[in-house]
Amino acid sequence: MRLITLIILFSGIVGVGGEGAQAQNTQTELFNGRDLDNWEIINDGQFLVEDGVLKIARGTGWLRSSDVYSDFVLTMEFRFLEAGANSGIFVRTGSTSADDNNGWPNNGYQVQCMDTLTGTPLGNMIPYGAPPFEHEFDIDALKEAYKPAGEWHTYEITAQGENLRIELNGVLITTATGIKNLEGHIGIQGELGLLEFRRISVLEI
Fold first, then answer.
1. What does the alpha-carbon distance between residue 163 and residue 160 come to, in Å, rounded to a whole number?
2. Which residues pair with 2 in a beta bridge?
3. Above 80 in pLDDT, residue 2?
4. Which of 46, 53, 51 is nearest to 87 (CA)?
């Protein structure tokens, strides 16, 4: 398996514990399928709920969780409604935004959510004004997990201490260490693409 190592090899992440440990953790359904309760639309982002799914309708800005989270497992399903559709998932992100036309966060981390296997592909990590981090991305794993536009994907994003890992459709794609923002908002980026999201939950660990 070929690896693209962006800085150094990831040294591992502590598991979230066994069945008994998870029973003591708190799980929150961030999206109820009816409205944007638990969320705030930032900088005129074009987000709406229709037919039980959360839709992005080509706007910019972002959708920010009302609460902040520290150590967690974020699970969500999403699909691209057109080839090349673009968005991003923000984690450990501050409440402030850049003062520009896009109005995206200026202190956090983005997990790429774009329908592409090239350039900055799906599942990659992008800093948004946060301190530098170490990052390993597996392009072969992405190609194994990838589904074309119109099919549902599942992200499982685990943040624990200074470590972060990203699984796409049950396949480990990305690992990162040296994550210095230890808490922050969860967010969804509007970047002029057409996407849908559903079944968004966060398990605090």
1. 5
2. none
3. no
4. 46
Give residue-wise pLDDT tens across range 99-147. 999 999 999 999 999 999 999 999 999 998 999 999 999 999 999 999 9
- Quick one: which of 96, 175, 178 has its CA closest to 132? 178
Q: Using CA atoms, how far apart are residues 47 and 88, in angstroms rounded to an integer?
A: 14
User: Residue 145 phi/psi, 5° resolution?
Assistant: -85, -20
What is the reported pTM? 0.88
Which residue has 């790429």 as its token pair? 112
Are 88 and 79 spatial neighbours (Cβ–Cβ below 8 Å)? Answer: no
Amino acid at 83: A
Pick from 133, 119, 122: nearest CA to 173: 122
Q: 4-204 in CATH: which number?
A: 2.60.120.560
Helix/strand/coil (H, E, C) string of the chain? CCCEECCCCCCCCCCCCCHHHHHCCEEEECCCCCCCCCEEEECCCCEEEECCEEEEECCCCEEEEEEEECCEEEEEEEEECCCCCEEEEEEEECCCECCCCCCCECCEEEEEEECCCCCCCCCCEEEEECCCCEEEECHHHHHHHCCCCCCCEEEEEEEECCEEEEEECCEEEEEEECCCCCCEEEEEECCCCEEEEEEEEEEEC
**How far apart (Å, rounded) are the C-alpha atoms in residues 155 and 172?**
10
